[in-house]
Amino acid sequence: MSKIRMDKNTDPKHPERLLFENITTYSSKDRHNLVRIDNLMRPGEEEIEMYKGEGFDELVERVIAARKIGAEVIWSQGAHVIKNGLSRYLIALMKGGIITHISGNGACSIHDFELAYLGGTSEDVPTAIEDGSFGMWEETGAMMNEAIQLGAKQGLGYGESLGKYIDEHPEKFPYREDCVFYNAYKLNIPATYHIALGTDIIHQHPTVDFAAIGYASGEDFRKMCMSVSKLDKGVYMNFGSSVIGPEVFLKALSIARNLGYPTFEITTGNFDLINLGNFRCKIGYEDPNYYYRPRKNIVNRPVSCGGKGWHFVGDHKQTIPSLYNALIEKGALDAKADKLK
Length: 341
Description:
Helix content: 25-40%
Order of helices and strands: EHEHHEHEHHHHEHEHEHEH
Radius of gyration: 21 Å
Shape: globular
């Protein structure tokens, strides 16, 4: 057993743990951001080549059919959807009545939050990790942890806590209208964030309260379970989340079915860059694609008793605008994205 080092950063009550009180944070105000408000993509103004993946048109039709009968359309995503400048497409799809629930990992909420108060997000990680400054942003960590802790005390989930915080402090968030979870909050659409502790930069901040984060994210999981319990004849789409999204969906689906909710006639679509080939055939442990969670947890297992699942290969900057444009072309979404036809 290695000798435990005792110094000013060691917790005297638990010498195997580091204290976070002495972590140095930096202002984000002068940070160089790779993603900015002024370079976000604009729905209806971008010239893109329409995505033509096999089954895409049928998926779009199923989204339209689901919303016509009031069924759920759940949108799951990884952080690169926000980092690719696609926030306004998500907001338009929510305002247009297409998305009924939006979910993501912790990084999704952080990039969204930074855009709202700073007008920019996404630092240069390779250089910042060299001196330990990576993720040590005072404003991001302080405000997000404050929002989550305040919300948890009120029994709120993670996404709702952040939305409420922005709503109550508009002077701090000049770019809030381009914030996905803030728009979801105003539209009364669940925005849930499913957190793996230790994976997000706000977990590095001296004011972090892991109990509050756990509580708030747990409440969001309950909300996800509720939405999934109403997914029969609905659609679940995942954009780029390879671990958190697929795992949360599978557990929520198991809970819904365990409680007796009919969730068998569902449509699933996974959008990512990885090419799985024939994603419906059986593969063994020796195939690396077996361990790609979306293949099992989104495309195949959830529709084994009915429905249909697809895996679409493509860049989010093409697939998401294509989905938006297809809904416009088929008359399902108003061009101003303010109502469902």
